[in-house]
Amino acid sequence: MALRSPAEFKEGLQDGRVIYYKGKQIKDIVAHEDLGIGVEHVSLDYELAENPEHRDLYVWHDPDLNQPCSRYFKIPETTEDLLNRRRMIEESTRLADAVVLLIKEIGSDAIFALDLITNKVDSKFGTEYRNRLRAFLEQCKVNDFSLAVAQTDVKGNRSLLPSDQEHADYYVRIVEERADGIVVRGAKAHTTCAPYVDRIIVLPTRAFGENDGDYAVSFAVPVNAPGLKLIASPFGSPPISSFHHPVSSRHRMIDTLTVFDDVFIPNENVFLKGEWQYAGPLANTFVEYHRFTAVSYKPPLCDLFIGAAALLAHYNGIAKASHVRDKLTKLITYTETVRGLSLAAAHDCLKQDTGAVVPDITKTNLAKYHFANGYHQAVSWVQDIAGGLVVTGPDE
Length: 396
Ligand SMILES: Cc1cc2nc3c(=O)[nH]c(=O)nc-3n(C[C@H](O)[C@H](O)[C@H](O)COP(=O)(O)OP(=O)(O)OC[C@H]3O[C@@H](n4cnc5c(N)ncnc54)[C@H](O)[C@@H]3O)c2cc1C
Fold this sequence. Notes:
Elements: H1 6-12, E1 18-21, E2 24-26, H2 35-42, H3 44-50, H4 55-58, E3 59-62, E4 67-70, H5 79-95, H6 105-125, H7 129-143, E5 147-150, E6 173-178, E7 181-192, E8 199-202, E9 217-222, E10 228-232, E11 255-266, E12 270-273, H8 279-297, H9 299-315, H10 322-347, E13 350-351, E14 357-358, H11 361-386, H12 389-392
Parallel strand pairs: 1-10, 5-8
Antiparallel strand pairs: 1-2, 3-4, 6-7, 7-11, 8-9, 9-12, 10-11, 13-14
Helix pairs in contact: 5-8, 5-10, 6-7, 6-8, 8-11, 9-10, 9-11, 10-11
């Protein structure tokens, strides 16, 4: 198959998955009036792969499979690979009015991290995780899977390691080992896009100690696996007015509490099982890739700030006022610093033993820091230029 249409992607979601939202079980996520907005939003990923204007960027011919695949599944080996990835993420986010899609970006970040870490675990323990991971990656390419990542555990008391918590299930753990797989129990918080993806990749969230072996677990799981339950957050429920909320009424990311109620994971989908020494390195390596993704999807939002501020200045007749020009200049400086640092991170990437590259860690972190640290200030410049009407204005 290799590439799916938006309709095929939506059909794939009708698989009996268990989703709860506002206290009710949702039978058809595609048709659901709130959650369906998320499905429609991420379908853009599949549209871009079909669109002649964007196809060259979003589709990659895999020489091993000798077929076209989503370029998100190409393990980055050069600066050019990272720059392509950056462009894909920035462009799709821009086309979705500054809301990232995140149905292949985050999952491929996890795959890249697992590819590096399973290589190390296999060398030390003689395991075969990397072969399993490579087989899973091939499934992702061939089936054009969408993916979520469940890393953040509910955690309980943050000062304590998992095995010291008052409740054993505050971190996802292995409760049973069978000849053909493992059974896992617990819950992950904040899993973005989980209700409308094909597979969830589970990663450890932090470094563990030697008593935490049952918690050092990583695997991939289909969303309709028996015992897997998603409780979707109502945060960002669609606003009533699409006039007042032109973006959030059409583009939405849905996060879940992801409950593993004794879920069986076959051996072929298990990528870490008890090697607690590698939980921390896996968590960190994922973040090194994922932060680069994050700083690739921030610039379109910053661009929106600049455009909105310039338009509002024009409406208010103050475009030539010196304090307005000063604020617009600062907004541009803010935006281009994030963009420039993310580009520099790709240029100064670090080659790994496997041949893969990791974006420069310092520059990626600086880009994220600069974005987050300046965010509220940037919004305040737009608010100042806008005046009060954006909040108090009448409806359509
Ligand atoms: C919109 C959104 C989408 C997200 N999407 C995903 C996703 O798709 N997948 C995923 O896995 N995660 C996701 N996350 C999770 C995100 O990565 C976490 O929120 C983040 O890692 C922080 O974890 P936390 O929320 O448990 O907060 P905490 O880590 O508990 O932080 C709360 C406070 O506790 C402090 N703290 C924590 N531990 C300690 C300690 N040991 N000692 C002292 N202080 C401590 C922190 O510094 C902070 O001040 C998402 C989050 C958001 C908000």
